[in-house]
Task: structure prediction
Amino acid sequence: MKLTPLEFEKPIVELEKAIAALKARTQEHAAGAMPEVEALQAKLAETRRQIYSNLSPWQRVQIVRHSARPYTLDYLKIIATDFMEMSGDRCFGNDQALIGGFATIGEQKVMVVGHQKGHDTKENIKHNFGLAHPEGYRKALRLMRLADKFDLPIVTFIDTPGAYPGIASEERHIAEAIAVNLRELFTLRVPIVAVVLGEGGSGGALGIGVADRVLILENAYYSVISPEGCAAILWHDNSQAPKAAAALKMTSPDLLQLKLVDEVVPEPPGGAHHSWNDSAEAVKTAVLRQIAELRKLDVEKLRDQRYEKFRAFGEFTEAA
Result:
């Protein structure tokens, strides 16, 4: 898939073009041009380091919204064997914005549930841009209860701007569906590991996000609202989204410091879309390690720790 550079990556692109052009011009005298090429390559490496090690929250948001970024099914094709997708909520229909089924990751059999987006317009329409309806969350709960029955760890992949906000969702009780998931996830007797792959938006993310361990990819975000939504409410101006992204403390370094996530999974330089395999391998390693640690706990301790984990969220101070 062709990678479209982001605005802040243009200095890198210009240097790559300059190196390619220099090599093309000096094919017959490559040895003489080597010092100049090496100098440009050193400058390129330094430029990459400076840009990718000093990303702003808004730049990270742009990275996770890149159309070439891998989604749940892309990760499963790399890290899972014998994935068997299961459909329907046994009540209304099958929501393709939330997919799930049995899979084997490494030697570990698991139940996987995750949001799914598309890499082009046709796929995005099919998966509703990752915006799940109530039946998606009811399907997710059905599958997670099935995992509980057969003593299978649950792995959830979060990547959504939020639950679908349309009339159809309200008619079929989206708030109730998410609320039931929040309640029931605390009762499950098996380890639950959630991984924020890209966008972690509001209740749409939390509906499959109550987990014993919450991991987040390096450039992903997890927030009560999108930067654009926050900007529209506070400043009545969508152009203030970069300011909102910084104020929301929504990126992985801030979330780890606030103890809202348990681990940051590293991405390849420039983001997961630059190397799906490297990113998938990092996710696989982290997930299997967390499951192995959680398997050492007895059921009651597992559930108690899950409950206490979420009860401990949030800090406040009282005015004198």
Notes: The mean pLDDT is 90.
